[in-house]
């Protein structure tokens, strides 16, 4: 099922990220804006240094000192400082996939630990445990024997599956090793491979055992979830329903012996009113902090612009250009001063109103820039500064009035809520205690006892029905268990024979060569290979031991076993369930959880990184060139995986890449970036069909095609002439070509580029 909706999940408005360097200020990202819906994929394209990765790192707040407004699911996640709650929301709901999977995975930890970290840090495990234990005791009571039956069946099936496999394996290798001969016509490698075939067969055996155990564990976990759903939907047998309702009625009646119904109802009202009051206070505090943070963020942006204009002023070679930068510098300084003066009285404005304020200031900035005169035959700083101070007339009054109005509304609501609570508390105090009604309590107690007796009767009938079956299952399990334990004797014999065979093999090498150095090197090489095979076996054996413990822990999960550590065992099962599912979602096996990053190929490591990003069920994923370091043979697999998961899970994906053919395949819309700016944007189909910007055309010309495979490589000499046309006094902005296509250009460039394209089509 694909999830693609029109619900906006990520909104980026005028994102800017400047870096201060020794020579001044560099605009790494300048004025980036876009929106993403659930299940939508945005391709961010550009050559190295265009600012793509800086956008991704800013969104995820690896860079937090950027300007602009970024909202995710209507929560603001931008600004130098954001609230603890919003930061937690960001960490849980936005994840990043980095270019090199090896460097983004901790090589000291196995995959289980790596995937566990985001679950713990983001509080997902805590929520999962809270949900599970909310009715765990009731479920294991109501489904006691059903759970036990499922457990016994699974245990028996595991033994019935693995015992014949082990018996066949041992019989085969006892015979082989007893009759093993060293054929002199065979090379050392052939003989070594014949012996080492044991490890391949054993690995195959263990794989079958592990897969069967995983299958049974999954079935048991699903059984519990099925019974949990039945209980929560009240899909119970009549005796179980009656007991559940009788218990609830008894607790309520017992409470009413001390408090009247009206008092109980008033208590509930007071609690609701208190919650409302606390939420209003929280809203006021968070709203104020958010608005103030946005204003401070804009002040920071203007300060950076101020330094940028000042740097341009210093490097200007002409009076006209110098004075133009002076105008921008002092106008920016004036805006900073005005915002600082009013910021405390703008802290209850909405995001939209604050954006309108900044847009109005930007328009006023442009108007003043055109109005202020300068003598362009000299450095005219003093005159420009005087004109700005004299002519400044931007009116904040409408914004200050709206802010005061909103503050008054919130304050009034808080006062009313506080007053309502006080009145309810007074009313509660005046209420008299109820007359005890022992006969009513006696009545519900009797009903409860009847329900308990009926439940016990039905349970006993169920128990009697299944008791004989349970005994049969126990006997069968015990018999299979003894058979399994008896394999230990043959296993020891096989191990001894294997060691003996390897010793003979090494002695045979020594006897067939007089070169001691060569013999030593040959034997060491074989021992290294053998050691690697044995290490692999150890990882399988460890996994089998862990699975055996998991089966035992499920008995605690089902309430069959109980001790002070039962809840700890259950938590471990829940954790493993989440981690195994995340691996399976990206096409990896459960047993990979106990291996280390260096044991995987590049494509598998990238899948693990994707699993880590997805395990917290985020709303947005930023994929920073996730296929750049992978083999071309597996790039398509990873891209297909990301696309499928995006559609199924409904998260928004920002896909940063150089590979234009991959972006064309995966993205719904694309933005072309050059030197920190978006130069062309729109629907993928439209941009690829009708590229207009010279930089976009240059990128598309560089896509490898079979038709130009015979053309020798030549360095790209892209002409940056279009940038010179956008310098002072020319102004570039985003123009709409059509509903699915926008182009960043000056007015003259827009007319020229679109007319050339129209002529070509004609």
Secondary structure category: alpha/beta
Largest sheet: 8 strands, mixed
Order of strands in the sheet with most strands: 6-7-8-3-9-10-12-11
Low-pLDDT windows of residues? none
CA gyration radius, whole angstroms: 36 Å
State mean pLDDT (0 to 100 scale): 85
Q: What is the total domain count?
A: 4
Q: Which overall shape is indicated by the principal axes computed on the Cα atoms? A: flat
Helical content (DSSP H or I, runs of 4+): 55-70%
Organism: Mycoplasma testudineum
Keywords: ATP-binding, Nucleotide-binding, Transport
Pfam families: ABC_tran, oligo_HPY
Protein name: Oligopeptide transport system ATP-binding protein
Task: Kindly describe this structure.
- With 762 residues, this protein is of the alpha/beta class.
- It folds into four domains: 1-109 and 596-675, Rossmann fold (3-Layer(aba) Sandwich), CATH 3.40.50; 124-235 and 479-574, no CATH class; 263-430, no CATH class; 692-704 and 717-762, no CATH class.
- It is 65% helix and 10% strand.
- The strands form two sheets. It has an eight-stranded mixed beta sheet with strand order 6-7-8-3-9-10-12-11, sandwiched between helices. The protein has a four-stranded antiparallel beta sheet with strand order 2-1-4-5.
- α6 packs parallel to α14.
- Keywords: ATP-binding, Nucleotide-binding, Transport.
- This is Oligopeptide transport system ATP-binding protein.
- Residues 10-700 form the ABC transporter domain.
């Amino acid at each position: 099922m694909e999830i693609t909706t029109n619900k906006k999940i990520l909104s980026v408005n005028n994102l800017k990220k400047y870096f201060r360097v020794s020579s001044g200020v560099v605009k790494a990202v300048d004025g980036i804006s876009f929106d993403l819906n659930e299940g939508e994929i945005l391709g961010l394209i550009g050559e190295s240094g265009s600012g793509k990765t800086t956008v991704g790192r800013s969104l995820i707040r690896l860079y937090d000192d950027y300007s602009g407004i970024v909202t995710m699911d209507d929560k603001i996640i931008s600004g130098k400082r954001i609230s603890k709650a919003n930061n937690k929301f960001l960490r849980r709901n936005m994840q990043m996939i980095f270019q090199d999977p090896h460097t983004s995975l901790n090589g000291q930890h196995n995959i289980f630990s790596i995937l566990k970290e985001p679950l713990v840090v983001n509080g997902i495990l805590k929520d999962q445990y809270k949900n599970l234990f909310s009715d765990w005791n009731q479920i294991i009571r109501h489904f006691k024997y059903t759970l036990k039956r499922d457990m016994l069946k699974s245990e028996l099936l595991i033994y019935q599956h693995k015992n014949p496999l082990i018996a066949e394996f041992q019989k085969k290798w006892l015979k082989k090793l007893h009759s093993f001969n060293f054929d002199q016509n065979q090379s050392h490698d052939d003989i070594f491979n014949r012996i080492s075939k044991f490890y391949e067969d054993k690995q195959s055996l263990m794989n079958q055992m592990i897969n069967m155990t995983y299958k049974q564990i999954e079935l048991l976990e699903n059984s519990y979830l099925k019974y949990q759903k039945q209980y929560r939907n009240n899909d119970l047998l009549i005796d179980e329903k009656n007991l559940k309702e009788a218990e609830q009625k008894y607790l309520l009646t017992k409470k009413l012996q001390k408090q009247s119904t009206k008092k109980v109802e008033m208590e509930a009202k007071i609690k609701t009113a208190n919650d409302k009051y606390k939420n209003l206070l929280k809203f006021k505090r968070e709203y104020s902090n958010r608005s103030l943070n946005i204003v401070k963020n804009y002040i920071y942006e203007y300060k950076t612009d101020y330094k940028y204009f000042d740097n341009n002023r210093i490097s200007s070679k002409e009076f006209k250009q110098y004075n133009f930068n002076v105008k921008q510098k002092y106008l920016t300084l004036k805006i900073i001063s005005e915002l600082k003066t009013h910021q405390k009285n703008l802290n209850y404005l909405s995001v939209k109103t604050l954006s309108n304020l900044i847009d109005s200031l930007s328009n006023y900035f442009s108007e003043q820039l055109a109005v202020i005169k300068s003598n362009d035959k000299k450095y005219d700083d003093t005159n420009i500064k005087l004109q700005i101070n004299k002519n400044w007339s931007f009116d904040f009054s409408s914004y200050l009035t709206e802010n005061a109005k909103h503050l008054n509304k919130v304050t009034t609501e808080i006062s009313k809520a506080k007053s309502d609570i006080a009145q309810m508390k007074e009313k509660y105090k005046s209420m008299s205690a109820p007359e005890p009604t022992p006969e009513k309590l006696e009545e519900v107690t009797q009903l409860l006892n009847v329900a308990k007796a009926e439940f016990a009767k039905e349970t006993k009938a169920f128990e009697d029905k299944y008791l004989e079956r349970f005994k049969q299952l126990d006997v069968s399990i015990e018999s299979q268990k003894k058979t399994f334990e008896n394999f230990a004797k043959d296993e020891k014999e096989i191990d001894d024979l294997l060691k003996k065979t390897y010793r003979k093999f090494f002695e045979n090498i020594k006897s067939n060569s007089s070169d001691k150095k060569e013999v030593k090197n040959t034997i060491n090489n074989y021992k290294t290979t053998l050691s690697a095979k044995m290490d692999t076996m150890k990882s399988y054996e460890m996994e089998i031991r862990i699975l055996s413990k998991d089966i035992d822990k499920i008995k605690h999960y089902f309430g069959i076993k109980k001790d002070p550590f039962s809840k700890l065992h259950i938590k471990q099962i829940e954790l493993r369930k989440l981690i195994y599912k995340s691996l399976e979602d990206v096409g990896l096996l459960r047993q990979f959880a106990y291996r280390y990053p260096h044991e995987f190929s590049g494509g598998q490591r990238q899948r693990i990184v994707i699993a880590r990003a997805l395990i917290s069920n985020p709303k947005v994923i930023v994929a920073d060139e996730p296929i750049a370091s992978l083999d071309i043979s597996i790039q398509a697999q990873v891209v297909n995986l990301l696309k499928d998961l995006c559609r199924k899970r409904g998260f928004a994906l920002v896909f940063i890449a150089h590979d234009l053919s991959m972006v064309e395949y995966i993205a719904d819309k694309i933005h072309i970036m050059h030197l920190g700016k978006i130069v062309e944007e729109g629907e993928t189909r439209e941009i690829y069909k009708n590229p207009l910007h010279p930089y976009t055309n240059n990128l598309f010309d560089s896509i490898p095609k079979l038709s130009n495979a015979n053309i020798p490589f030549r360095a790209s000499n892209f002409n940056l002439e279009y940038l010179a046309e956008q310098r002072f006094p020319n102004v570039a902005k985003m123009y709409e070509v059509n509903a699915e296509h926008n182009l960043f250009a000056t007015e003259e460039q827009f007319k020229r580029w679109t007319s050339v394209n129209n002529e070509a089509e004609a």
